[in-house]
């Protein structure tokens, strides 16, 4: 696999232009490199729509929040993207299609943008000039003068005492020039001078294995910084159940996990602010999504009974909490908003995915699969929505795999096997490990080449393989292994291998997802060919090769053109709820619309799970799958 991709552009002159660029180059930069003018009115900041293109051919990269804000979900679904925000991941053909009425920095209003998502974060900053009370006979106060200056923007005149403690001095410092900040109509901050241009928010997705966040400008929707880290709770349990077990009936352990999560969020806020050169004191709203366990731990809610049947959450509704109560480092009276929880193991992250993928508004049946340590899946349309979750474990995130790693520099991401094995590594460096998408592709290629059989066992029939491939089957410390990169070529000084145990971990993970989707299809009475689109979500860090995912039976057997990689849909849902109160409230409506299927309580699930363990075409599953179930 090369690290370059070809971009073809349908020119206005009717000619096709083409250019080869490094993978990851934005469409805008590539087009300019090809000598094709694409307007970039806002300077490629995702703040206008002048660079809009339609992807005519090739995979459609996941939308960014700017795509959704500027173009609207409909256009995003119809393969429109902002050229300045969209990175090329494979050969692609585009047609520049700026909206006719495009006039620069306009974000809201106007006919052509009615489909765009309205920016209404609930945070409003207003510069005001306020005169202090002048007469000794006054019937007014400093605060009243401020509230009066704000007029109808204020819907409640109540304030917390700490907001007004130093108001008298502020009011008189610069001739009454102040900036007032309101959240949902309530006064939450008063600053001296005009700071109305500095209004930010953070969106977080707390996963079992990793935590990602983004800093957004609440006036424009622009993403100013993207940050992420490994969930520091991981040493206390790799998956949800072990994390719950650690905290179960042990309040001290719960506090320890909570402290780890809060530290991670505060570190990420600091990092994002440093990257974007903004002050955390101007972050007024933080939206956090995560699975039910992460949500509860962050809020310090006892998870003891979440780990016991019937796995009921303690609370389900969306919450708005003062950030200082957690505490998170933001503006003194910033708020943290959570999204609702559907069930014990279908959390606010799943709601966020439904929000961003908009399957609730689809006329046809769509499936959303959020692949993470805890896989969450939703099937349906505007008629009906059904959700479930399945414990996939951390294999897709590179954990519990001998040489597993996240999708970072040095991770094997693509593999080809002919008369030998060829690995493509992120960044073109010497390999130091393998990421989740690489693991999927490795198993797909190994299955095709006969290195592993349908039950997932490494073959003993070495003679049937090309000699160079056969030599890679070695005996390791804990049994048979397959060498992907020899130690002399690796960046680790040792062989990068896949062990039989690694393959078993992948089988358990992929079958959890496969059988979960199969159960949802069964519930809805839908065959794979009746699914209009499968949206693959999750923070793999790299793009999963969908053909490989279908081949290994991670995803249902359906045409690959109908499988779309949607990126981190949970984070995007959090971003949408951050930027739009209407989206945040929509999550509440969705809570009442989505039905939940508890897989563990379904006697037919076991059969689906066993069938999902096998590799390759369903025809090859059969008896082999049973043997696997015994071997695990
Ligand atoms: S140039 Fe303005 S959004 Fe791309």
Major β-sheet strand ordering: 11-10-9-12-14-13
First-last Cα distance: 34 Å
Radius of gyration: 26 Å
Strand content: 15-25%
The low-pLDDT segments are: 101-114, 618-632
What are the distinct ligands in this entry? FE2/S2 (inorganic) cluster
Helical fraction equals 25-40%
Key attributes of the depicted protein:
binds FE2/S2 (inorganic) cluster; 5 domains; 632 residues; disordered C terminus; alpha/beta; Ubiquitin-like (UB roll); single chain
Question: How would you describe what is shown here?
Answer:
The chain is of the alpha/beta class and 632 residues long. It has 5 domains: 4-96, Beta-grasp domain (Ubiquitin-like (UB roll)); 123-192, Roll (Ubiquitin-like (UB roll)), CATH 3.10.20.880; 200-338, Nucleotidyltransferase, domain 5; 359-394 and 507-611, ATPase, nucleotide binding domain (Nucleotidyltransferase, domain 5, 2-Layer Sandwich); 396-499, no CATH class. It contains 17 helices and 26 strands. The strands form 6 sheets. It has a 6-stranded mixed beta sheet, sandwiched between helices. A hairpin with a 5-residue loop joins β10 and β11 (223-230). α7 (251-276) packs across α8, α9 crosses α14 and α9 (348-357) crosses α15. Mean pLDDT is 89; it is low at 101-114 and 618-632.
How does the SSE layout of this entry go?
Blueprint: E1 4-10, E2 16-22, H1 27-33, E3 52-57, H2 65-77, E4 80-82, E5 92-96, E6 123-129, H3 142-150, H4 161-164, H5 167-173, E7 177-183, E8 186-192, E9 200-206, E10 210-217, E11 223-230, H6 240-247, H7 251-276, E12 283-290, H8 292-299, E13 320-322, E14 335-338, H9 348-357, E15 366-370, E16 374-380, E17 385-391, E18 411-417, E19 421-425, E20 433-434, H10 436-449, H11 467-470, E21 473-476, E22 479-485, E23 496-499, H12 500-524, E24 533-537, H13 546-551, E25 563-567, H14 569-579, H15 581-593, E26 594-596, H16 605-612, H17 622-631
Helix pairs in contact: 7-8, 9-14, 9-15, 12-16, 14-15
The structure holds FE2/S2 (inorganic) cluster.
FE2/S2 (inorganic) cluster (FES) is lined by residues 40-42, 44, 46-48, 50-51, 82, 84.
């Amino acid at each position: 696999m090369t690290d370059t991709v070809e971009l073809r552009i349908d020119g206005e002159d009717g000619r096709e232009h083409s250019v080869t660029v490094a993978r990851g180059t934005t469409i805008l930069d590539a087009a300019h490199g090809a000598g094709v003018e694409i307007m970039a009115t806002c300077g490629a900041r995702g703040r206008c729509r002048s660079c809009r293109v339609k992807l005519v051919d090739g995979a459609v990269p996941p939308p960014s929040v700017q795509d959704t804000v500027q173009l609207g979900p409909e256009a995003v679904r119809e393969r429109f993207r902002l050229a300045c925000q969209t990175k090329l991941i494979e050969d692609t053909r585009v047609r520049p299609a700026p909206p006719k009425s495009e006039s620069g920095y306009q974000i809201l209003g106007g006919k052509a943008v009615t489909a765009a998502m309205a920016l209404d974060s609930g945070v409003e900053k207003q510069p005001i000039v306020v005169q202090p009370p002048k007469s000794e006979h006054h019937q007014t106060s400093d605060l009243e003068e401020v509230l009066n200056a704000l007029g109808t923007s204020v819907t409640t005149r109540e304030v917390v005492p700490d907001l007004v403690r130093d108001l008298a001095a502020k009011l008189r410092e610069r001739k009454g020039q102040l900036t007032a900040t309101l959240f949902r109509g309530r006064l939450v901050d008063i600053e001296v001078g005009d700071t109305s241009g500095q209004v930010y928010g953070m969106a977080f997705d707390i996963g079992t294995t990793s935590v990602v966040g983004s800093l957004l400008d609440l006036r424009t929707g622009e993403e100013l910084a993207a940050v992420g880290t490994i969930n520091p709770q991981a040493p206390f349990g790799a998956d949800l159940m072990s994390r719950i077990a650690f905290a179960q009936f042990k309040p001290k352990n719960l506090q320890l996990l909570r402290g780890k999560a809060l530290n991670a969020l505060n570190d990420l806020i600091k990092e994002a602010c440093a990257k974007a050169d903004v002050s955390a004191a101007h972050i007024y709203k933080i939206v956090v999504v995560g699975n039910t366990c992460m949500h509860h731990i962050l809020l310090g809610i006892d998870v003891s009974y979440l780990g016991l049947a019937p796995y009921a959450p303690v609370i389900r509704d969306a919450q708005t909490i003062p950030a200082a109560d957690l505490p998170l480092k933001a503006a003194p009276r910033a708020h943290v908003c959570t999204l609702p929880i559907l069930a014990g193991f279908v959390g606010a992250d799943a709601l966020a995915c439904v929000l961003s993928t908009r399957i609730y508004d689809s006329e046809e049946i769509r499936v959303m699969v959020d692949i993470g340590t805890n896989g969450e899946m939703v099937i349906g349309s505007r008629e009906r929505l059904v959700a479930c979750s399945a414990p996939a474990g951390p294999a897709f995130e590179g954990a519990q795999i001998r040489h597993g790693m996240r999708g970072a520099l040095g991770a094997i991401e693509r593999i080809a096997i002919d008369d030998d094995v060829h690995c493509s590594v992120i960044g073109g460096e010497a390999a130091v490990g393998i990421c989740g998408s690489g693991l999927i592709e490795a198993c797909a290629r190994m299955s095709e080449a006969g290195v592993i059989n349908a039950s997932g066992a490494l073959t003993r029939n070495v003679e049937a393989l090309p000699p160079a491939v056969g030599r890679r089957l070695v005996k390791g410390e804990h049994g048979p292994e397959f060498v992907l990169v020899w130690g002399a070529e690796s960046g680790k000084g040792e062989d990068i291998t896949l062990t039989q145990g690694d393959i078993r971990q992948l089988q358990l993970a992929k079958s959890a997802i496969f059988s979960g989707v199969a159960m949802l299809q069964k519930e809805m009475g839908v065959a794979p060919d009746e699914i209009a689109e499968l949206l693959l979500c999750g923070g793999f860090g790299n793009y999963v090769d969908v053909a490989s995912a279908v081949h290994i039976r991670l995803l249902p057997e359906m045409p690959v053109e109908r499988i779309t990689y949607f990126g981190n849909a949970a984070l995007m849902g959090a971003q949408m709820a951050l930027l739009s109160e209407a989206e945040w409230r929509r999550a509440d409506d969705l809570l009442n619309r989505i039905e939940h299927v508890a897989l563990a309580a379904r006697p037919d699930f076991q059969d689906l799970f066993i069938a999902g363990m096998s590799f390759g075409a369903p025809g090859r599953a059969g008896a082999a799958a049973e043997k696997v179930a015994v071997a695990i």
